[in-house]
Write a structure and sequence with these properties.
Blueprint: H1 2-19, H2 30-34, H3 40-48, H4 53-65, H5 69-82, H6 86-98, H7 102-115, H8 120-133, H9 136-149, H10 154-166, H11 170-183, H12 187-199, H13 204-214, H14 223-234, H15 238-251
Length: about 250
């Protein structure tokens, strides 16, 4: 009986494998996509030249443009295996993020950090992948390494500040975001910093929010006004807070 059961299981496995239920594109419905416009011409060419990495990459890009990320994954993967190139790695990593293959993207980016040391983008994306995987200490260590080599790396400062904010390490988050703000006083950095100032009852929130409002020539941007209201609410100056919240309602 046990022999019969084992034989039956083996036959089932062979049938399932032959039918492609463990990854065959035809069974998964991918051919229905790949052999219709706008992919058919490329697919026909790939049938003739299955190891042409450039054709595979072109089809992957086209699939990505049409939000066929799961199908594009196979083309990116094969193109990278056939012809590892920096630009291919960038696009493949983006696909792995979108399709939720975090462990795979960590492996890819780790190899790219070593293969392309002159491209800091791979380190930043690797830190992002570590964060997605829940390995915050590895992400922070990577940001620290980047900043050790370049203390004026705005992206590393900003992203480390945002990560520290998520980890509730507010003091150090403020420090990193202040450095980022001094390097590039752009709106997204200013708002992130103003939010931390407001939540910690730091009066610097007032000056920063005012500075951000002055950049709004149309007077239609509500966030700085709202954050200033949050600051006054947190210090229990409710009349000023209410006036600012009413201004927010008037704006939007």
């Amino acid at each position: 009986m046990k022999q019969f059961f084992s034989y039956a299981c083996l036959c089932s496995l062979v049938v399932l494998t032959g039918c492609g239920l463990f990854g065959d594109k035809t069974v998964n419905g991918f051919n229905e996509v790949l052999y219709k416009p706008p992919y058919k011409v490329l697919s026909d060419s790939i049938d003739q030249f299955p190891n042409n990495a450039d054709l595979l990459l072109r089809r992957a890009e086209l699939l990505t443009q049409n939000n066929q990320q799961d199908v594009a994954y196979y083309d990116y993967k094969k193109s990278w295996q056939l012809k590892p190139a920096e630009q291919t790695a960038i696009m493949f990593a983006a696909n792995l993020f979108v399709t939720g293959r975090t462990k795979d993207v960590i492996d890819l980016l780790d190899s790219c950090v070593k293969k392309y040391p002159g491209n800091p983008g791979f380190k930043r994306r690797l830190a992002e992948a570590y964060t997605h995987e829940g390995d915050d200490s590895a992400a922070i260590a990577l940001y620290d390494n980047m900043l050790k080599n370049d203390s004026a790396n705005f992206d590393a400062l900003y992203e480390k500040g945002i990560l520290l904010t998520q980890l509730k390490d507010t003091v150090h988050a403020i420090g990193e975001l202040e450095k980022a703000w001094r390097l590039q006083p752009i709106m997204q950095t200013g708002l992130a910093l103003a939010n931390l100032y407001a939540e910690t009852k730091n009066e610097k929130a007032i000056g920063l929010c005012d500075a951000l409002q002055k950049r709004d020539s149309t007077k239609e941007f509500v966030d700085p006004v709202f954050l200033e209201g949050v600051y006054y609410s947190n210090i229990e100056d409710y009349p000023k807070a209410i006036a600012l919240f009413e201004e927010c309602i008037h704006i939007d």
